[in-house]
Every structure is written in structure tokens, then in C-alpha cells.
Design the sequence.
């Protein structure tokens, strides 16, 4: 017994010695890696949208610069990323329209709110000095089936992109029922139906709004028709939850009875869908063991998206029991 204990002690000290030697060798052979974060390596970032249908949102483009990897991110940093004095034009197939630059106090409220959401800020609380290029007079011919070419000239560089506005596929047969499990006097579930066109790829996105508090996009806001191509398809439309709100697992995705809600339902093309699909996968697939995912851009000469939507709105009152 004593000999066995001595043997275990020898093995333990031998293991510690080997581990120490390996650790020394590892640290002596490992070089510290510091990412290159030069300001000159910053890229332009485009976030531009054009809508047709029920939407009253004018066409607008945000032009910013990417932030170096190891930057200190604060309000000053964000205010400095906006790119001013660019020439931004959109060709609608018949006419080239130049967008005019406006900053926070001059922006229409709907553009200011949409720009804040695109940048990840709460529209009601942000003090960000948002600047955007806007077709404020609505000169661009926005229509379903239209093709729109974006061109940005800035600091001797040219950025281009093309998007389309597909045909709108509406929702119908909106109906309410109880969430799964016990009947609820507090929350309800919303069901909607679409008649998906056959033999073509279709892509959808939506926002929800409660009691005129502003639109919010769900964590996963886009879907394609891979599983229901050409079918009349009914599905539950979950309520979008603010990312800075308290998480309520019991009522997540359900609507509170007595609330007035609005749904912004949109169709978009494949390239625009891929941007949101990869961005939301990357955003939601967080953590130390998540896989790397590159966000797909449809912009040439910059990062970001130039995207078209066909838009419809639906107003509902969540029934009270």
C-alpha cells in the first residue's frame, strides 16, 4: 500500500513537470497577433432602401464608414462615421434622380426612425446625428417589377448596386387563437395565410408594431418559400420583440390582448434576402462556439445593401376575452 502511494506521488510530480515544460515551449513558440486596424483600411458601408405599394417611406441611402476592429465605440465614434457631400443617384429605368443630403433635424420622422433601426438604435432615444441621402420629393418612379440602379460617387471612388421590387404577395385570413396549452386571458397568437406563386422563388420579410410605438423587426425577419412553393400556406406570425427589452419566455412571440397592432409585410428579391438572412444568422448565432459567417452584400465597391421592397400594411386589434 505504501509503495503504491509513493508510485502515485511520483506519477503526479512527473505529470506536473511534463505539463510545465509543454506550457513553456508553447508560450515561447506563440507570437502575439494584433489585428491591423489602420483608419485607411476602413470601407464604405451602404444601407439603402426603396419601397413600393402601401409604403409612404421615401427612398433613402445611409453612407457610413466601417469602424476599426479595436475601436472604442461611443456616440462620438458613430457621429464620425457618416460620410457627407457624396453624389448619390438612382436610375429607375427612365430617369436618373439625385438624392439630397439631410441630417437629423431635417429628416422626415419615418426616414429618421428607419435609419435609426437600420443602425441598431432605438428611434425614440437616440441622440445620434443621423445623416441620409433622400428622395424627399418622391421623384423616383417606385413600382412593383421595377429595376433600380444605385450609384455613389465619393472621394474619387464609385460605388454601384442594383435591386428590384418584386410583385407583392399579400397576407389574408388573419385570425386569432389562444397560445398552445391553457387558454389565456392575457395573450393571443396570430395566424396568417399567403398564396405563394408557383414555380418561382419568393422571399418575404416583416415588422410588427404595438400601439403606435414604432416598428420592430423579429430576430429572424426573413423567410423564403422553399417549404411551401406554390401553396396556400397558413402559419403563425410571431410578434417582434425589442432587442433591448426584458425577455419574457412565457409570452415571447405572442400579442397582448387589447393592444392595437400593425404589420408591415414585404416581398424582396433574392440578393436582398441573402443580405438579411446572413446578417441575422450571424447576429443570432453568437457565443464562443458559434461558427463564422460572412454577411452577403449586393453592393459593388463597398459593404452593405441596396434593397427594394413591395410593401403592405395590416391593422389589427388583439381581441379581449
Sequence:
Amino acid at each position: 500500500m505504501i509503495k503504491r502511494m509513493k508510485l502515485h506521488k511520483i506519477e503526479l510530480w512527473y505529470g506536473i513537470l511534463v505539463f510545465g515544460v509543454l506550457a513553456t515551449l508553447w508560450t515561447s513558440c506563440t507570437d502575439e497577433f494584433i489585428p491591423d486596424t489602420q483608419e485607411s483600411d476602413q470601407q464604405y458601408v451602404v444601407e439603402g432602401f426603396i419601397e413600393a405599394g402601401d409604403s409612404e417611406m421615401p427612398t433613402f441611402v445611409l453612407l457610413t464608414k466601417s469602424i476599426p476592429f479595436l475601436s472604442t465605440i461611443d456616440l462620438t465614434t458613430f457621429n464620425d462615421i457618416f460620410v457627407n457631400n457624396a453624389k448619390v443617384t438612382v436610375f429607375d429605368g427612365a430617369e436618373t434622380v439625385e438624392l439630397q443630403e439631410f441630417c437629423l433635424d431635417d429628416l422626415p420622422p419615418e426616414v429618421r426612425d428607419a435609419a435609426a433601426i437600420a443602425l441598431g438604435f432605438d428611434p425614440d432615444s437616440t441622440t445620434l446625428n443621423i445623416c441620409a441621402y433622400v428622395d424627399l420629393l418622391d421623384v423616383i418612379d417606385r413600382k412593383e417589377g421595377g429595376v433600380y440602379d444605385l450609384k455613389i460617387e465619393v472621394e474619387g471612388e464609385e460605388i454601384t448596386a442594383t435591386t428590384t421590387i418584386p410583385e407583392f404577395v399579400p397576407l389574408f385570413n388573419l385570425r386569432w387563437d389562444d397560445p398552445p396549452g391553457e387558454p389565456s386571458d392575457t395573450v393571443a397568437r396570430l395566424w396568417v395565410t399567403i398564396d405563394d406563386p408557383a414555380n418561382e422563388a419568393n422571399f418575404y420579410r416583416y415588422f410588427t408594431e404595438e400601439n403606435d410605438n414604432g416598428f420592430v423587426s423579429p430576430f429572424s425577419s426573413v423567410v423564403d418559400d422553399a417549404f411551401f412553393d406554390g401553396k396556400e400556406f397558413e402559419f403563425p406570425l410571431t410578434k417582434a420583440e425589442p432587442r433591448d427589452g426584458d425577455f419574457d419566455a412565457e409570452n415571447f412571440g405572442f400579442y397582448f390582448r387589447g393592444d392595437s397592432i400593425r404589420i408591415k409585410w414585404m416581398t424582396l428579391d433574392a440578393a436582398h434576402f441573402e443580405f438579411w438572412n446572413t446578417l441575422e444568422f450571424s447576429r443570432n448565432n453568437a457565443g464562443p462556439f458559434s461558427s463564422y459567417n460572412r454577411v452577403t452584400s449586393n453592393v459593388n465597391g463597398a459593404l452593405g445593401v441596396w434593397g427594394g421592397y413591395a410593401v403592405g400594411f395590416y391593422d389589427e386589434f388583439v381581441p379581449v376575452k
User: Anything to note?
Assistant: Residues 2-29 form the longest helix (28 residues). Residues 193 and 234 are 4 Å apart (CA to CA). Residues 1-30 have pLDDT under 50 and may be disordered.
